[in-house]
Each structure stands twice: as structure tokens, then as C-alpha cells.
Amino acid sequence: MLALKRIINIVAMVYLLLALLFVFSPATRDTFASAMGLNTTATIGNPNSAYNLATFYNTLFVVGLVLLGLQLIVENLSSLSLHRDIARHENKINELKAKLYDHQMEQRDRDVQRRTVATPASTTSAPLFPQSDPGLANAPIEKPNSIIPPAPGRDNRSTL
Length: 160
Description:
mainly alpha
């Protein structure tokens, strides 16, 4: 598809340059038209000379129209194929993310099971956190911290 797109673009650019050359350079147009068998020079008393020039420009117009249509079709097909590729890659990424998530959940479950199996029964009598220790900063208000006495006559919480 990319090769066809490039070929069409090159042909369209060459056509554009030739069309501009024919429009702005009558000598080149006459030389090219005579090579194609059309006589573009106006001669007195020859009514077909104007018709030949009109035929030349009409042919140039039709060729340009065909090239433009072909280029639009190729561009749209290329864009469509790129959108399909992007959608396919996004679906593949989502599948891989789902597999990674499933794998992480399985690994976490295995780690949790391994920890519960590896923990001996004697460690279950160990203290569990949080403990109510009056030395901790989050000790209940009924048991204030004995290390730092509150300032007399002043509410310490109002400065926070």
C-alpha cells in the first residue's frame, strides 16, 4: 500500500509540474501537443485549431481528475489500514495488560499462601499492632504522653 501511495504521489507531482508548464509556457504546450498529434497554433481560416487547443486542455483536465481521484482513493485506503493497525495494536496491548494483571494477582495469592504456610504457630501469640502504648504519639487523650507534659493554662492543639 505504501509503495502504491508513493507512486501515485510521484505521478501526481509530475502531472502538476507538467500542467503548470503547459499553462504558463505556450511554446512547451505547442511542442507537446504537436508530439501528440494536436495542432494548437491558430491559423486564419482553420476553425479546428481552437478545437484542438480545447481538446488538449480537456484531456489535461480529465487526466488530472483521474489522478486526483486515484490519489484520494489510495490516501483513504492507507488511512483506513493505519486505523485498523492502531486498533489491532491497542487490542493487543489491552490483552497483554489483562494477562499481566491476572499474573500479578496469581503471584500475590501465591505469596499470601506461602506466608501463611511458612508462619509457625508460635508466632501467632506475638502482639499484633496497633497497640495502645501511652508513649506513642497517637495515644488516647485519657492517657496523655508522660514524656512531654502539657503547658499549663494553654491548649496545645490550637497551634496546629
